[in-house]
From TrEMBL:
It comes from Acidocella aminolytica 101 = DSM 11237. Residues 3-121 form the Gfo/Idh/MocA-like oxidoreductase N-terminal domain. The lineage of its organism: Bacteria, Pseudomonadati, Pseudomonadota, Alphaproteobacteria, Acetobacterales. This is Oxidoreductase. PANTHER family: BILIVERDIN REDUCTASE A (PTHR43377:SF1). It comes from the Bacteria. One of its GO terms (molecular function) is nucleotide binding. It holds the Pfam family OxRdtase_C. Residues 132-229 form the 4-carboxy-2-hydroxymuconate-6-semialdehyde dehydrogenase-like C-terminal domain.
Length: 340
């Protein structure tokens, strides 16, 4: 029986809680958030035994076995280090961190402590992609072009729960992480580092700071490999039509997955697949099962470093044009003491 502590109770906190409710090997022990009243209400609704607004006290409870971090993106690295210091296994929501340097620090610290470090990269969990990956690994298909799109209207910082948040997304270090990682993972046949070594060129555009939000709102990333494969990620926070999909083209077929409608279109037609929420449930369940089976989780911390190194190049190009600076949702220092 694993005692689980959850940090954060937004949309992903809800989905992780739903996934582990009724799991025979899980006790939902403690949920942590800033406002004790709302955290207590969440604990009662989803079956946590305890609620807390003190992160360090919560994760250092001796009977906690593992921690799921679903707080604001810019807090992930600092929260991860606090959990590692408490010597607990951890599952971190995407992104692991918003600088490559702090991500490397987290990965190395977890490995030195012999702790499991899983990262929530949901696009690697989809069952239809598992079948495609197996064909790629067997040499039956080769990705030629992979295009991921994320368009949403986010001039006001309201998240998926419909509640106005005190923090803001980052189009490069949050949403582009999903899309670029998928491309590297498939091109590398399940090994993003292998794909990273084959990169010939990375080209990018990221807009200047929007005067209302203070963040870049548009992005294009184009990656070329030495094998003439292309990975493309595009997105905008100005988009009135919400779009979240990926299109994988091989020499034999194409696979366009609409994450929002849960529909997969191939050369054979369109079929329904599992929802984004159902897919997310697999992440926390894999984490718990990995701990029980003494194996590595499906997505390890080290396996996500290649995508963060690519994003680092894009950020460095933007910094050279606009100046290195703190922006809302992405402070330059990621390893400050966690607040909560």
């Amino acid at each position: 029986m694993k005692n689980i502590c959850l940090i954060g109770h937004g949309m992903m906190g809800i989905w992780h809680s739903e996934a582990l409710q009724g799991h025979p090997d899980v006790r939902l022990h403690t949920v942590v958030g800033k406002d004790l009243q709302s955290v207590s209400a969440f604990a009662e609704k989803y079956g946590f035994a305890n609620a807390s607004n003190n992160l360090l006290e919560a994760v250092n409870q001796p009977d906690i076995d593992a921690v799921i971090i679903a707080g604001p993106s810019e807090s992930h690295a600092a929260m991860s280090m606090a959990v590692i210091k408490a010597r607990k296994h951890l599952l971190v929501e995407i992104p692991l961190s918003m600088t490559v340097e702090s991500a490397e620090t987290v990965v190395e610290a977890a490995e030195r402590a012999n702790l499991a470090l899983a990262v929530s990269h949901p696009m690697r969990f989809r069952p239809e992609r598992a079948a495609l990956l197996q064909r790629i690994q067997r040499g039956e298909e080769t990705p030629r072009h992979i295009h991921g799109r994320f368009f949403i209207h986010r001039l006001v910082n309201i998240g998926a729960t419909g509640i106005k948040r005190t923090w803001i997304d980052n189009i490069l270090w949050h949403h582009s992480t999903h899309l670029v990682d998928l491309g590297l993972w498939l091109v590398g046949g399940g090994d993003p580092e292998k794909a990273e070594k084959r990169i010939r060129n990375v080209k990018s555009f990221m807009s200047a700071l929007d005067p209302h939000t203070g963040t870049p709102m548009e992005i294009v990333i184009l990656i070329e490999t030495h094998d003439d494969q292309t990975l493309l990620a595009t997105g905008s926070y100005y988009g009135k039509e919400r779009i979240y999909d990926t299109h994988v083209v091989t020499e034999k077929d194409s696979y366009r997955l609409d994450e929002l409608t849960a529909k997969l279109t191939t050369g054979a037609g369109t079929e329904e697949t599992i929802t984004e929420q159902e897919n997310a449930w697999a992440i926390s369940r894999d984490f718990v099962n990995a701990l029980n089976e003494s194996r590595a989780p499906l997505v390890t911390g080290r396996s996500v470093l290649p995508v963060l190194r690519v994003l680092h190049k894009v950020q460095a190009e933007w910094d050279s044009q606009h100046g290195t600076q703190d922006i809302p949702g992405r402070p330059l220092v990621q390893l400050q003491q966690p607040v909560m």
